[in-house]
UniProtKB/TrEMBL annotation:
InterPro entries tied to this protein: SET_TTL12, TTLL12
PANTHER family: TUBULIN--TYROSINE LIGASE-LIKE PROTEIN 12
Record-annotated Tubulin--tyrosine ligase-like protein 12 SET-like domain positions: 48-202
Gene Ontology cellular-component annotations: cytoplasm
The protein, known as: Tubulin--tyrosine ligase-like protein 12 SET-like domain-containing protein
Pfam name, any one: SET_TTL
Extent of the signal sequence: none
């Protein structure tokens, strides 16, 4: 870890998405240009191989209020995000609007505990939320609720003060060219939370009715007279 070795290229490859893939859970993957698969003769065994864990870099880390300005001012960030999110636009301003919409399908988040000095209250802890988009490899891992074979978790490496994503197999993968899938909400079995967290993948005109249905079901007192 201390050497930040990104050796996933020895195990995985990016492949162009086949739009005719009938087994793909399409609502969750429409903007992805590539998918991730293992290479030939690669075997990943989480039970017996302690090296079956890989680093994913973060292509963009930001605070929500800074997102638009980042895309305008950070060199090459707009071009990289447009390519990663499959955004084609006539103007940069229009492209930024599309990225700001689509980024919720790529966003990950973590919260860091920081401290700030308050002369009146002494030293107090404050939670700092950050959002990030994984690099091209991490962002190309597609969603599946039933075929997930890896898990991705954010990891703060204190010696270098750097946040990475770790990903590792959760089942044995032994067939060559196996596609890599993850479940975006693997750790949440609450139906309400699951439906809310999957809202970015619903069509815009459907979100209002979905939210209303969820509210009626879970907070009926709001609609009682």
């Amino acid at each position: 870890m201390k050497n930040a070795i990104f050796d996933s290229g020895s195990y995985f490859q990016l492949c162009p998405v086949d739009d005719d893939d009938e087994e793909l859970e399409k609502p969750y993957n429409p903007e992805r240009r590539f998918y991730v698969s293992t290479l030939e003769n690669v075997v990943l065994d989480p039970e017996n191989d302690e090296n079956a864990i890989f680093l994913i870099d973060h292509a963009w880390t930001y605070r929500i209020g800074d997102a638009r300005n980042d895309l305008k001012s950070i060199p090459n960030l707009y071009e990289r995000m447009a390519s990663l999110m499959n955004v084609n636009s006539d103007t940069k301003d229009d492209g930024i609007e599309l990225i700001l919409q689509r980024m919720w399908k790529f966003n990950q988040t973590y919260t860091l505990a920081s401290t700030q000095f308050n002369p009146n209250a002494g030293l107090e802890a404050r939670q700092e939320p950050y959002w990030y988009v994984m690099d091209e490899l991490g962002s190309s891992i597609r969603y599946s609720s039933s075929n997930a074979n890896v898990r991705c978790v954010s990891f703060f490496f204190e010696p270098s003060q750097t946040m990475f994503t770790l990903f590792y197999p959760i089942v044995r993968i032994e067939q060559s060219y196996t596609e890599i899938f993850r479940n975006y909400i693997h750790d949440n079995s609450n139906p309400l939370d699951r439906n809310i967290k999957l809202l970015p993948w619903q069509r815009v005109y459907s979100r209002k009715s979905i939210l209303r249905s969820l509210t009626i079901e879970n907070c009926p007192e709001i609609f009682t007279t």
